[in-house]
Amino acid sequence: MKLTEERIVDAGMATFAETGYHGLSMRQVAERLGVHAGSLYYHVRSKDVLLTLMADRVCRHAYAAAGAALAALPPEAAWRERIEVQAAELRRSILQHPGGALLLADSPGMLSTGSLSLMERLLETLLDAGVPAEHCGIAADTLLSHVTGFLLQEQAGPQAPAVTAETYADLRARFPLVMEQMPRLSQEEKFRRSVGLLCAAFETLAKDDGSRA
Fold it and tell me: What's in the keyword line of the UniProt record (predicted)?
């Protein structure tokens, strides 16, 4: 089968799922494809470029998934719903790739159409909400950074270690706000609420316009 950039990215994603970010090498990708490592460089000139292409694929999948979800919303859907959909689909797309959050966080700082598309649509949503243009870039970057950070923790492993009743009672006595005030929620619910809090913050920046949802 002809060697193409798309096939190399496919092999890169499969290798990455097994080895992680730092274990990935062009040699391993070449072995998976049954070719010499040197032949990869004609299509993908370095590991950094491969990682960028892989991150771009995750972003493009998230962009397409969010596009379908946005299209399914009723015309009267509020801007907050549109932001929540975009965040939720990005999270879902990252979760489909083991270590995907680390891939996005650590991939080289090169421009990609996938990541730019995500940012562009998010900026459009924020502008439509009435957030002043001078704040939109920070708002969008904050949301995307939050999604990536949340997923870095989520994909790192178990979030709550098992404790005995005695240990829990001791912790509850010493740290009542942490142990009592923080509800035990699913990752799905924690993510939904955290995005809701960010949207509430964005709303304080929005122009006072009663016509906006």
Answer: DNA-binding, Transcription, Transcription regulation
